[in-house]
Amino acid sequence: MNAVTLGLSAGTLFAMAVVLAYILGWASRKFHVEVDPRVTAIMEALPGANCGGCGFVGCSDYAEAIVADGAPVNKCPVGGASVAEEVAGIMGVELTDTLPFRPIVHCGAHTQDKLLRHDYLGEKTCEAANLVSGVQGCTYGCLGYGDCTRACNYDAIHVVDGLATVDYDKCVGCGACANVCPRNIITMTPFKYQRVMAIACSNKDFGKSVKEVCTVGCIGCKACAKACSLFHVEDNLSSINYELYCQDYTDELKKAIEKCPQKRIILVGKPTEKHLAETKDMDVPELVEAEFRTTVDDTEWWG
Amino acid sequence: MLNYLVDIFLIAVSAALINNFVLHYFVGICPFVGVSRRIEMAFGMGCAVTFVISIAAFISWAITTFILVPGAPLSQWIAGFFVPAETAAKVDLTILSYIVYILAISSSVQFVEMYVRKFYPPLYKSFGVYLPLITTNCAILFACLTIMANIVGVDDPADAWDLGRSLVLAIFGGVGFTIAIVIMAGIREELDLCDVPKPFQGAAITLIVAGILALGFMGFTGVDSGLRKALTPTVEKQAAVENLPVGKMVKTASGYRLIG
Description:
Chain A is an alpha+beta fold.
């Protein structure tokens, strides 16, 4: 290693850097591609999580689809309403109601409410427990082994006292929990408001059978349907028509909540202060706050 | 001339099949595992690698021959201004090989990316993130280093690889990479339909399949020396061509050789 080698090395690298920089600079001008400035602007507005929640490959793909193919501007589940508004502003389109889809667990039975429950010594997953009869009396309700908790990437659903409970502050509405639930009791529902009503039961059996297996199940008595036209009882199970759901029905809904003998109509979502004030004097089951534990206890014996 | 053609042929077969970059030398594993999910994507990746590897081989052959190798004309000429000619002849810049090759590879990838983006937007879209990934593809660096070894490492400067041999190695190395990754993608497409035991799912079964595939390609081992024997003119023929007496030691360019 002498001065000549050193000098030549430095010179070689410097010359290469200059030559390549010149070529690349020339190529970048020569091969310049006109990109729609709106695409760039939308790219900046999008969160850049590349989660694929919008149904496109990534944020850049979605941005191009908005500009080129007129894809809906409100598809981004991570960015939510604020990003949809921004993107709508860039595209100059009117933003229609963006309905964030959020999961609702259609079961309200905690461990003490579930009857005919037996010790289950198998693998502690809902998928496995669902294959076995007799884990609990209700063959529709939440098993509480936390498949949804494991599926969630956002730490937004937890099994609280034997019942899967969504933390709507953390939930982004990706739908992973709804996909993984072997009993399909989690539905992705359009949240027209921060807080919506839901039927906390999925049992389709006759009232008598429901009462045998659960203390809090929907018995299909149709009391709610009589009180409010939004409710529809089919197969002994009440359901809410979310397409028509709006504030015009508030009074009827309140009546339905009062009429329900099982108190199965619950409010889910983030309560606003107004909501809290409205429902202060009403006897509705309060949303259970999420706790960071599951029914799967480390000390349990794994069969 | 005939010897040169045989050499080219052997380099091509060897790079594509016998000493396949992926399945024999285990370079370029990351795109091999990462982009081998669908056959079309694998084929696109193979073509991109072949293209980039050819450009990189051209650049690296030129740089090695004219600048890096001891006694290279360009560096010798420049050094001649500062030191006496006999010192200048010994200037050896091969230490620069890695950094220079990486520089050349990454800028050619950048160039290709811009070119493809301008003139073949659908191809650009289908490559997506994988085109920049080629920048760090070790198969390409491996090709450059092989070329360097065959220029710097030879005893006789006349045996050093010329541009033709280098390009053939690069192109057929890329073809071999394409063959390997397309075979892999075909297997993995079928594998999606199989009931793989849980511990083997995902990367594990992919690596096992790659290993079995490599074992299969080991079957080619030795074909190159057999081919060389079959293609090289036998000593009698050669003796007849060169008009040499059979059965005695003959001095040739690379030392003494027994004829007959």
